[in-house]
């Protein structure tokens, strides 16, 4: 029997993927890099540190990593400020399920980004249990974030449905033993 539904954040609860991409395109343009369309799927669901590390290596960017990350975060948050919103249908779905299932949110976003998004959209109004990057020993695609959430909720992995949209997130949830809906 399903007791809990656990959501990923970016691309599932909030419509942020396109905004990340706009901010990242702006950042890479400063360094003369145009990311091929086929490469974007490599980055989806990556934690922030991994994204910048992979991108700097892949495209030969010679910049202080902290400066590069700081610029990227600034551009992304500017895009979020302009038009971040919940995914179409999320609020209606949540209204239908929250009285019948435990719910949780597991994201690869850093605490800073999560708290910033929370200030914009009041995510804590929807989720009592939230895990963001750094709250579990390992990040997605490792199963730790979902195993921690399942333990926190107080059920077994097979009693959970995870809603995910990235390969890293799908691998994390499947490795944890949860049932998965891929968006």
SSE inventory with pairings:
Blueprint: E1 4-7, H1 17-30, H2 40-43, H3 48-59, H4 65-83, H5 90-97, E2 102-106, H6 111-121, E3 129-131, H7 144-153, E4 160-164, H8 167-176, E5 179-182
Parallel strand pairs: 1-2, 1-4, 2-3, 4-5
Write out key terms for the chains shown.
single chain; 183 residues; alpha/beta; 5-stranded parallel β-sheet; 8 helices; 48% helix; globular
Description:
With 183 residues, the protein is of the alpha/beta class. Strand 2, helix 6 and strand 3 form a beta-alpha-beta unit. Helix 1 packs across helix 4 and helix 4 packs parallel to helix 6. The longest helix has 19 residues. The protein is globular. The two termini are 22 Å apart.
Concise description?
This protein has 183 residues and is an alpha/beta fold.
What is the topology, as strand order, of the major beta sheet? 3-2-1-4-5
| Rg of Cα set | 16 Å
Determine the fraction of residues in helical runs and give it as a percent range: 40-55%
Class by SSE composition: alpha/beta
What characteristic shape results from the CA principal axes? globular
Distance between the termini: 22 Å
Rounded mean pLDDT is 94
Portion in strands:
5-15%
The biggest sheet, with number of strands, parallel, antiparallel or mixed sense and barrel status, is: 5 strands, parallel
What is the number of helical segments per DSSP (H or I, 4+ residues)?
8
Would you report the number of β strands?
5
Task: Spell the H/E element sequence.
Answer: EHHHHHEHEHEHE
* Weakly predicted, low-confidence segments: none
């Amino acid at each position: 029997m399903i007791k809990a539904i656990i959501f990923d954040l970016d691309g599932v609860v909030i419509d942020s993927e396109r905004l990340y991409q706009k901010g990242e395109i702006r950042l890479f343009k400063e360094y003369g890099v145009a990311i091929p369309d086929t490469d974007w799927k490599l980055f989806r669901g990556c934690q922030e540190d991994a994204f910048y590390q992979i991108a700097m290596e892949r495209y030969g960017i010679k910049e202080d990593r902290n400066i590069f990350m700081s610029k990227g975060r600034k551009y992304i948050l500017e895009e979020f400020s302009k038009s971040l919103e919940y995914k179409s249908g999320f609020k209606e779905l949540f209204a239908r399920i929250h009285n019948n299932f435990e719910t949780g949110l597991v994201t690869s976003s850093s605490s800073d980004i999560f708290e910033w998004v929370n200030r914009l959209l009041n995510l804590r109004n929807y989720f009592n249990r939230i895990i963001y990057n750094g709250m579990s020993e390992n990040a997605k695609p490792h199963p730790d974030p979902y195993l921690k959430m399942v333990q926190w909720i107080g059920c077994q992995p097979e009693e959970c449905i995870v809603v995910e949209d990235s390969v890293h997130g799908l691998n994390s949830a499947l490795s944890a033993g949860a049932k998965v809906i891929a968006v």
